[in-house]
User: Fold this.
Amino acid sequence: MLYSRIAGTGSYLPATVVTNSDLEKRVDTSDEWIRTRTGIRERHFAAEGELSSDLAMQACRRALQAAGRDVSEVDLIVVATTTPDMIFPGVACILQAKLGVTRGAAFDVQAVCSGFVYALSIADMFVRSGQSRCALVVGTEVYSGILDWNDRSTCVLFGDGAGAVVLLPSQEPGILATRLHTDGRYTDILAVPARVCGGNIAGKPFVTMEGQAVFKFAVKVLTEVAAEVLERAGLPLEQVDWFIPHQANVRIIEATARKLGLPMERVVVTVDRHANTSAASVPLALDEAVRDGRIRAGQHVLLEAVGGGFTWGACLIKWG
Ligand code: UT7
Assistant:
């Protein structure tokens, strides 16, 4: 039986760091409010003209280097993003050209903050079925462009960045199990409710969110899907070495870990420095924990995310 395994990770954060104190100068907020309500201390913002494909390119180069693979080997690129460079073509196509990849398929996945977990699940199926022998799976976002600076309840929460992994075929698992869910009845509580129509933007082209409804929904489904994916793999929770949830709010992360019975020592947290980078948050956190040596061969890693749609999902991995 063929499996897929992550052979290398990479990430990229734009150079500009914006602290909570910097935001105090721009909106009616305080470092104290942001830290106590969310755990966020700072975030990175892309430079003018720096697009999701640019961030993705840097993350992919680092992931390929870590995996010891050349761009000529890549035959699949799946990009998770909510902030594409343009309406079409997709970021994956633009990224393919920027990387110099000339074969295989490249496409985007739109599942908002769950995008990377969705993209990884899709790429896993491509690799296991033999359709891909070297896949790049990327989460990349430039949220700074869709923040409403008149809405202090959302503009302080997000940041920009990208994370990527190289997925290869393997005789050993690899990705042990994945679970994906959607409930379209909740589209209204988290959205950028705009579209382009007749050369104009119809609707509000900024993040809108009912924070408390999202908070409760997130804790509930993240707890449920963790149990589901563990059951599917036949793995007890005690054997999860690292839990890497979507990084939206440290209170959501702590509440989920508490409900699962996982100590915070086994949870990777980057939201304090990255804020919520949507589809990029999980691969950014994964790359950090791989590069600093926390995640080691043979360990079990549980990735989870939840986002607009509503979408949510989990991937359970045996690190190889
Ligand atoms: O990727 C998934 C997307 N998002 C999330 O996961 C976010 C989920 N939700 C949350 O993280 C939290 O609901 C928030 C951090 C967004 C808000 O925290 P909260 O504890 O639910 O606060 P709240 O919305 O109930 O607001 C409490 C107060 C309000 O003032 P009053 O009405 O009590 O006087 C707000 O106006 O905090 C005020 N407030 C702020 N004050 C200072 C809201 N935003 C700010 C701010 N600075 N930035």
In short: The longest strand covers residues 160-170. The chain has ten helices and 15 strands. The chain has two domains: 3-172, 176-318. The chain has a mean pLDDT of 98.
